[in-house]
Design a protein that fits this description.
The chain is α/β, with parallel strands linked by helices. It folds into 2 domains: about 140 residues, Rossmann fold (3-Layer(aba) Sandwich); about 160 residues, Rossmann fold. The chain is about 45% helix and about 15% strand. Bound molecules: phosphoric acid mono(formamide)ester and norvaline.
């Protein structure tokens, strides 16, 4: 039975139900098929999406903009210098005013409190296009990719090697919803925050699966079906890059790390990648790598999100 998601915001995956996430994945599969066979699917004719960016983007910007145009609607790109979020006027006023013009807001921000404020004051759905805390749209595309490549989400073990950042948090949130096993290997001091682990504990208890945290990448990748990594210095952490390069040494995903693994796995990365840092170029281009399918699936998953929330 379909659940109505009309008017909802997407701040993090942990605030949605498993049924809602499943509905996005099911809708994404249908929309992807329609797009591939050239069947029109004008679900958002006359609708507009404001896209607010405090940070750069390739995938998020292009996939949302192309996605809404494939649905018959329009996107409006607001660069960091356009509205000067947090500087020119309150987030409250921005949310209220933009809601008078458009049917949905997608925002890529630094502090997650901005997503919270936008969602609190906007009268249209707010979609988190990445905050320092979470990147839910990424994980929706990733889960679609895991479904396609592994046949099912159930029973998969994810190993995430690297920084306990927004992408790691969202992978943990998604895993908690579907009862998956996820092992995180981060250098000491860069593990996912305690409040994230506390937040997901009741979900794992209810749905099965578990999250484990280690400082040993070899330990994390044992029996993994999905091996995932992300940059060591995220957007906004550029000043820490050199320090992090040293501290993350030994956490590169490469052929040496996966040598001897007996279970089949796919390699995933949200991109952009810094080859030679968190992943070797060779492994990223290996036949087990699905990084470009992941990037494509952002389009299909986000079309489903927009259609379900904004129709
Ligand atoms: N993965 C991702 O969000 O890519 P962009 O930063 O290019 O949008
Ligand atoms: N953790 C990265 C993800 C980029 C898509 C960042 O926040 O920069």
């Amino acid at each position: 039975m379909a659940v109505s998601m009309k008017g909802k915001s997407l701040k993090t995956l942990i605030e949605w139900s498993r049924e809602e996430i499943q509905q996005v994945l099911d809708t994404a599969i249908q929309l992807k098929m329609k797009q591939k066979i050239g069947e029109p699917h004008p679900l958002l004719v006359g609708k507009s999406l404001a896209m607010i960016f405090q940070k750069p983007s390739l995938r998020t910007r292009v996939s949302f903009e192309v996605g809404i145009s494939q649905l018959g609607g329009k996107a409006l790109y607001l660069a960091p210098s356009d509205i000067k979020l947090g500087e020119r006027e309150t987030t409250e006023d921005i949310a209220i005013v933009i809601s008078r013009y458009v049917d949905g807001i997608m925002a890529r921000v630094f502090g997650h409190d901005i997503i919270e404020d936008l969602a609190k004051y906007a009268t249209v759905p707010v979609i988190n296009g990445l905050s320092d805390y979470a990147h839910p749209c990424q994980i929706l595309g990733d889960f679609l990719t895991i479904l396609e490549k592994r046949g099912s989400l159930c029973g998969q073990k994810i190993a995430y090697i690297g920084d306990g950042n927004n992408v790691a948090n969202s992978l943990i949130f998604g895993s908690a919803q579907f009862g998956l096993e996820i092992a995180i290997a981060s250098p000491r001091g860069f593990e996912p925050k305690k409040d994230v682990l506390k937040r997901v504990a009741p979900f794992f208890k209810k749905n099965g699966g578990k999250v484990t945290v280690t400082n040993n990448p070899k330990e994390a990748v044992k029996k993994a079906n999905v091996i995932y990594t992300d940059v060591w210095a995220s957007m906004g952490q550029e000043a820490e890059k050199d320090k992090r390069l040293g501290l993350f040494k030994g956490f590169q995903v490469n052929h040496k790390l996966v040598a001897g693994l007996t279970d089949d796995f796919i390699f995933m990365h949200c991109l952009p990648a810094h080859y030679g840092e968190e992943v070797s170029y060779e492994l990223a281009k290996d036949e087990r790598s699905v990084i470009y399918d992941q990037a494509e699936n952002r389009l299909h998953a986000q079309k489903a999100v927009m259609a379900l929330l904004m129709m």
